[in-house]
From TrEMBL:
<protein>
    <submittedName>
        <fullName>Ribonuclease H-like domain-containing protein</fullName>
    </submittedName>
</protein>
<dbReference type="InterPro" id="IPR043502">
    <property type="entry name" value="DNA/RNA_pol_sf"/>
</dbReference>
<feature type="region of interest" description="Disordered">
    <location>
        <begin position="1"/>
        <end position="22"/>
    </location>
</feature>
């Protein structure tokens, strides 16, 4: 596909992959390409959601899955100069963005949750993953995503403490679901949320001790959207840049 027509996004905004379709002629080729793309996500977080979607069907790939995989390759072909950039940062605050696409899978109705964690101005960890259970509400799906992000930031804080650079300010976790933000600090256990009790108490304990603050962010600035669903091209490009996935800075004359 060296001479393929590039596309602006790795996944479209309409279709959702399911188990339907004719089997592919060469499943081994599909699995090989999907595995290679998994390695590419180590430096290309903008590919995480698209690659996660096709990897769900590696056991039984179908023609629509192969078409989606080729779209990712077309996107990569047009963005070969893009990559995760790291810069000198003047702040060491830990900030996470968490989002979930409630019941996004058309066949299982499971949600996809995603998060990204910044240390200062640099993206250091991210995830796009299908939730293991079916959420009965969007609040539950969002809150499970928040719990995953909080667990990741707790691990990062412990790692920095072992490296003798502890963080003294609270971790900020941004979520675009008001109900999930409310549950993180409200000590009342509601009847409709008893089934997510463990995640609620886990996050609340860290909020109560001052290690974490869960705050609301408008969907327009929810960067974790790029890990949970297909986005329109202008919004995708903006979020990709916000994740520091950009071409390398141009070298000045005489630089090596």
């Amino acid at each position: 596909m060296l001479n393929c027509n590039p596309c602006k996004t790795p996944v479209d905004t309409e279709s959702k992959l399911g188990p339907d379709g004719d089997p592919v002629e060469d499943p081994t080729l599909f699995r090989s390409l999907a595995g290679a793309l998994q390695y590419l996500t180590f430096t290309r977080p903008d590919l995480s959601y698209a690659v996660q979607q096709i990897c769900l069907f590696m056991h039984d790939p179908r023609v629509p899955h192969y078409t989606a995989l080729k779209r990712i390759l077309r996107y990569v072909r047009g963005t070969l100069d893009q990559g995760l950039q790291l810069y000198c940062s003047h702040t060491s605050q830990l900030i996470a963005y968490s989002d979930a696409d409630w019941a996004g899978c058309p066949s299982t109705r499971r949600s996809t949750s995603g998060y990204c964690v910044f240390l200062g101005d640099n993206l250091i960890t991210w995830s796009s993953k299908r939730q293991h259970v079916i959420s009965r509400s969007s609040t539950e799906a969002e809150y499970r995503g928040v719990a995953n992000a909080v667990a990741e930031t707790a691990w990062v804080r412990n790692l920095l403490r072992e490296l003798l650079v502890p963080l003294h300010s609270a971790t900020l976790v941004y979520c675009d679901n008001v109900s999930a933000v409310y549950l993180s600090s409200n000590p009342v256990q509601h009847q409709r949320t008893k089934h997510i009790e463990i995640d609620i108490h886990f996050v609340r304990d860290l909020v109560a001790t001052g290690h974490v603050r869960v705050l609301h962010v408008p969907s327009r600035y929810q960067y974790a959207d790029i890990f949970t669903k297909g986005l329109p091209s202008p919004l995708f490009t903006e979020f990709r840049s916000s994740l520091n996935v950009r071409p390398p800075p141009a070298q000045t004359a005489g630089a090596y």
